[in-house]
Design goal:
By secondary structure, this protein is an alpha/beta fold. It folds into three domains: 97 residues, Immunoglobulins (Immunoglobulin-like, Sandwich), CATH 2.60.40.10; 251 residues, Rossmann fold, CATH 3.40.50.1110; 104 residues, Immunoglobulin-like, CATH 2.60.40. Helices cover 25% and strands 27% of the residues. The protein contains 13 helices and 23 strands. Strands 1, 3, 4, 6, 7, 8, 9, 10, 11, 12 and 13 form an eleven-stranded mixed β-sheet that branches. Strands 14-15-20-19 form a four-stranded antiparallel β-sheet, with no helix packed on it. α6 packs across α12 and α10 packs across α11. The longest helix has 21 residues. The chain starts with a helix and ends with a helix. About 4% of the residues have low confidence. Keywords: Hydrolase, Signal. This is Sialate O-acetylesterase. GO terms for molecular function: sialate O-acetylesterase activity. It comes from Pontibacter ummariensis.
């Protein structure tokens, strides 16, 4: 009888253990040791548990607990108010079991995404890698790399974990994101969390919800031109579902984007695609976070004028509020789609961010951006933003300007700087109506502002580009 009782007790205990294990509270991978939470914010922490299970979350910065219950879908979430930058703290999540997240910092959290130029690491080969890798010991800079995955619908989790910046972790992380984060950390004096969700060779459509693509005829047609490749997905939403959706609603300060090379097959559509992506992400996160992107560098092997058209499409995407663009035409490589100077790309993104988001207006935000034109007889005067202190030419004269009359035939033009404007003319064009600048795939920039940043390529017209014109100007 005694043995039978012991056996029954053992079975009951084992059954309870199995039930508790099956219903134990769990967290997505984005919540792990060494994570950074956005400072001075209401952050959301979420996970799974047994339906009806009571879950309590406590941040050690104030030891205030928030309690909720898992819903009928076995999901739960709570909101915590984070303190100013600091740490390390712990976050304790208690249900039937207890999870303690250690070495948590509060600071600035930025999401970096795109294709290979964002994904590119020091280990892959960058300028000054031998000098930079050993210096990457920054305990207050943390990395989270999202592992490549695809899905047909929004996923609940990603593969990855937070790690501290060291020479070993830095060399395998996004170089652009690292140099961006280091600049923010050094200037602001706060912890920085960097989430890299990038995939080399992917077109922009894979990073947008398929519903967004399907409802827009321009995007739907452009997406249909993408051909299958061996190195990654091309179908709308495949990376968004698996590598972006699971991160939502982790609180971020903003997003960085370096992508576009794989959209040169339908470059004009990028002026619709990039704003659609921004709106899609902001809508899902539920707030209008800053979105800063890198204009693709000139490269000789894009299709006829495709690089110039896509760069201009990126420039026109600046119409979306709270965005900014970094121009890298002077630090690119016309012979290599993967320029190795990632340090200055990261620093320019940081300067733009420090200026626009953190109020460090002494930092140069941008190179000259075309604003408007004025016809003055046989000349055209061009006006620019980010040129208040004047313009400069790196070289004996300005190059890469073209001008056209009503016949829409562009010819090379003479250009000269007058204060913070540029005056353009050509002897053969008596009644000018339009100007284009750097309207070729491969260019050597000559127009800069006093901060030493290059002007973006642009066109003042919106005329259709015929295949004959494109081939002639390739």
């Amino acid at each position: 009888m005694k043995k039978a009782l012991i056996t029954i007790q053992f079975v009951i205990a084992l059954s309870l253990s199995i039930v508790n294990a099956a219903s134990a509270v769990t967290l997505p991978a984005i919540f792990s040791d060494h994570m950074v939470l956005q400072q001075n914010a209401e952050v959301i922490i979420w996970g799974s548990a047994k339906a009806g299970e009571e879950v309590t979350v406590t941040g050690s910065w104030d030891n205030k607990s928030v309690t909720t219950k898992a819903n009928n879908l076995a999901k739960w979430s709570v909101k915590l108010n984070t303190p100013p930058a600091g740490g390390p703290y712990t976050v304790t999540v208690k249900g039937y079991n207890t999870i303690v997240i250690n070495d948590v910092l509060t600071g600035e959290v930025w999401l970096a995404s795109g294709q290979s130029n964002m994904e590119w690491s020091a280990a892959a080969g960058i300028e000054n890698a031998e000098q930079e890798i050993p210096k990457a010991n920054y305990p207050a800079i943390r990395f989270f790399s999202v592992v490549h995955q695809t899905a047909d619908g929004p996923q609940l989790d990603v593969k990855g974990e937070w790690v501290v910046s060291t020479p070993e972790t830095m060399k395998h992380f996004s170089a652009v994101a690292y140099f961006f984060g280091r600049e923010l950390h050094q200037e602001l004096g706060v912890p920085v969390g960097l989430i890299n969700s990038s995939w080399g060779g992917t077109p922009g459509e894979v990073w947008v919800s398929p519903e967004t693509i399907a409802k827009d005829p321009v995007l739907k047609e452009a997406a249909a031109t993408q051909e299958e490749v061996q190195w990654g997905p091309v179908q709308p939403g495949k990376a968004y579902h698996a590598m972006i959706a699971p991160l939502i609603p982790y609180r971020i300060a903003g997003a960085l984007w370096y992508q576009g090379e794989s959209n040169t097959n339908a470059p004009e559509a990028y002026a619709t695609l990039l704003p659609a992506l921004i709106h899609n992400w902001r809508s899902e996160w539920g707030y209008e976070f800053p979105f800063y992107f890198v204009q693709i560098a000139p490269y000789k092997d894009y299709g006829p004028q495709a690089g110039a058209i896509l760069r201009d499409a990126q420039r026109r995407s600046l119409k979306v509020p709270n965005t900014g663009m970094v121009v890298v035409s002077d630090i690119g490589n016309n012979d290599d789609i993967h320029p190795r100077n990632k340090i200055d790309v990261g620093k320019r993104l940081a300067n733009l961010t420090l200026h626009k988001t953190y109020g460090k207006t002494e930092r140069p935000a941008s190179g000259p951006l075309y604003r408007e034109m004025k016809v003055e007889g046989r000349k055209v005067r061009l006006f620019f933003d980010y040129a208040d202190q004047g313009l400069v030419s790196k070289g004996k004269e300005l190059t890469n300007f073209q001008i056209a009359g009503e016949d829409r035939q562009f010819v090379d033009a003479k250009a000269k700087i007058e204060g913070n404007t540029v005056v353009v003319q050509a002897k053969s064009v008596k009644n000018p109506t339009a100007v284009r600048f750097e309207w070729r795939n491969a260019v050597e920039p000559s127009l800069f502002n006093k901060a030493g940043l290059p002007a973006s390529s642009f066109r003042t017209d919106n005329w259709p580009i015929t295949q004959e014109q494109a081939e002639a100007k390739k």
